[in-house]
Amino acid sequence: MSKLTVHLVNVIKLLSLQHDNLKNISDKVVKLQFLSVFKAITNFGAVSDNVEDKISKYWLGKSVEEVIDEADVLFSQGKYLDVYELLNRLKFCNNVEVQWRIGRALFKLSCQNSINEEVRNEMIHEAYEIIMASLNTVEDSAKVHKWAAIIIDRKNGMRGLEHRVKNSEIVKNHLIKSCELDPNDVTAQYLLGRWCYEMSNITWFQRIISKLLYGDPPQSSFEEAHKYLSRAEDLHPRFYLQNTYLLGKTCLKLGQYYRAKHYFGVVGNLPVHNDYERHCAADAKKLLKRLDKYSLEKSALFYEYPFGTNE
């Protein structure tokens, strides 16, 4: 190992030791960006699998699999910065299981209100670069395609409506691929259903304006949205308030009023975890009142005989 490499390693270790004194998430992220310079100078990403394994064990004292397991535990506890700090040391090992998890952690961090806009943009940009590198490495990872869809949509949404519209078909394709590779991923099914609902809910006037300004938005249907949202509900009933709420709204669009009433009633009994879910629950309550005339009595569940009782 060259003197320059040794020096860089010592600097990184120093930064790691000092990270407890950093005052906020923004400072930590800036310090961690030093690893990018380390890669560029030492060509860290070009090591062989054997050397890669030795370096990871030397640097962390654990195997990559052990690090991933630890990161998953931290993620389940909502400690997204800790996940990033842990996995970022293996960022350049060309392991897609590490890379998509880094992208996921960065996305979750970017959603926190304490993050300023500049740092949020940097996080999403870094997540985008990592997930695109993963896509260039493998094509058959459901997780990579799912998080590619999420991160690409967020990145383009931050750039403006024009970029989001122009890249929305790419987002759908990644979600479809994710669902094909893992039909039991309830989150991917929900996201695809939501995408179809949003595209179907665009009015003809909005489509005209969009065509003039940005180009034709993609086409979908409420039937397609219902397919994926109901699939998510079947896989894991009531797993996600927003899925049940959106399934109710889709049934409403399709004229399935009794089903819509059922789903809106379910939403009212589910716990809420954030402001958006509170909004969904409140809206479901209002829509439920509008559907009071659709009773779920026995007569509503069967077709009436087309003949009079005296015939």
Automatic annotation (TrEMBL):
- Show the InterPro entries listed in the entry: RMD1-3_a_helical_rpt, TPR-like_helical_dom_sf
Q: Which Gene3D superfamilies match?
A: Tetratricopeptide repeat domain
> What does the annotation say about its assembly with partners?
Interacts with microtubules.
Single GO cellular component annotation?
A: mitotic spindle pole
- The residues forming the signal peptide are none
Question: A GO molecular function for this record?
Answer: microtubule binding
The compartments listed are: Cytoplasm, Cytoskeleton
**Which source organism?**
Tenebrio molitor (Yellow mealworm beetle)
Instruction: Provide this UniProt record's keywords sorted from A to Z.
Output: Cytoplasm, Cytoskeleton, Repeat, TPR repeat
Keyword Repeat part of the UniProt annotation: yes
Q: What protein am I looking at?
A: Regulator of microtubule dynamics protein 1
Record's Pfam families?
Answer: RMD1-3
Where does it mainly reside? Answer: cytoplasm
